[in-house]
C-alpha cells in the first residue's frame, strides 16, 4: 500500500461540526462510528477531498483561541460567499476577505469548533511575483 495522509479534526462535538461543514461546504457524510455517546471516527467528503473528525477524548487537546490547531486552506472562486456562510453557521472572521498583494482574494475564518479556514481564489501571480509581494508585506 502507498502511504497516505489524512487530516483529522478533533472537536468538542463531532455531530455539530458535521452539521456545520454540511451547511457551509455541502459536505457529505461517508462514515460515522460511535462508542457510547462519542463519535470516535467520521469521514466527510468535502470539496473534492476526504476529511476525518472525531469528538475529543482524554488524549486530545482542543483548538482554542490563540492556539488554532489546524489551518485548512480552501481554494474557491467565491471566498466572500464561503466566509459569509461560515459566519452564518456560527463562525467568526479572523481577517476579512480582501484582495491580497500575492495575487489572490482571500481571508481567514474560524469555525465554531476551533479550526481556522483560509479561503481564497487561485493565485494569479507567478512564483517570483508571489515571493516579491510576500517579502514586501514584511516592510
Overview of this protein structure:
The strands form 2 sheets. The chain has a 4-stranded mixed sheet with strand order 1-4-3-2, with helices on one face. It has a 4-stranded mixed sheet with strand order 5-8-7-6, with helices on one face. 24% of the residues lie in helices and 37% in strands. The chain has 2 domains: 1-56, Signal recognition particle alu RNA binding heterodimer, srp9/1, CATH 3.30.720; 69-139, Signal recognition particle alu RNA binding heterodimer, srp9/1 (2-Layer Sandwich), CATH 3.30.720.110. The chain has 139 residues and is of the alpha/beta class. It comes from Desertihabitans brevis. Residues 2-122 form the VOC domain.
Question: How would you summarize this macromolecular structure in one to three sentences?
Answer:
InterPro entries: Glyas_Bleomycin-R_OHBP_Dase (IPR029068), Glyas_Fos-R_dOase_dom (IPR004360), VOC_core (IPR037523). The protein has 139 residues and is of the alpha/beta class.
Net shape: elongated
Unreliable residue stretches: none
Helix content: 10-25%
The main sheet comes to: 4 strands, mixed
- CATH A-level architecture of the largest domain: 2-Layer Sandwich
Q: What count of domains describes the coordinates?
A: 2
End-to-end C-alpha gap = 47 Å
| Order of SSEs | EHEEEEHEEEH
Number of strands: 8
Secondary structure elements and pairings:
Layout: E1 8-11, H1 14-25, E2 28-35, E3 38-46, E4 49-55, E5 71-75, H2 79-88, E6 92-99, E7 105-110, E8 116-120, H3 127-137
Parallel strand pairs: 1-4, 5-8
Antiparallel strand pairs: 2-3, 3-4, 6-7, 7-8
Domain VOC: 2-122
Protein name: VOC family protein
Amino acid at each position: 500500500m502507498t502511504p497516505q495522509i489524512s487530516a483529522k479534526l478533533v472537536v468538542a462535538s463531532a455531530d455539530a461540526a458535521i452539521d456545520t461543514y454540511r451547511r457551509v461546504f455541502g459536505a457529505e457524510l461517508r462514515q460515522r462510528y460511535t462508542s457510547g455517546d462519542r463519535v470516535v471516527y467520521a469521514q466527510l467528503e468535502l470539496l473534492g477531498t476526504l476529511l476525518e473528525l472525531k469528538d475529543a477524548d482524554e488524549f486530545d487537546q482542543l483548538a482554542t483561541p490563540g492556539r488554532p490547531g489546524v489551518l485548512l486552506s480552501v481554494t474557491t472562486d467565491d471566498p466572500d460567499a464561503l466566509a459569509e456562510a461560515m459566519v452564518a453557521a456560527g463562525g467568526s472572521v479572523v481577517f476579512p476577505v480582501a484582495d491580497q498583494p500575492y495575487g489572490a482574494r482571500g481571508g481567514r475564518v474560524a469555525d465554531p469548533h476551533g479550526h481556522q479556514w483560509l479561503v481564497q481564489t487561485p493565485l494569479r501571480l507567478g512564483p517570483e511575483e508571489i515571493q516579491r509581494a510576500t517579502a514586501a508585506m514584511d516592510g
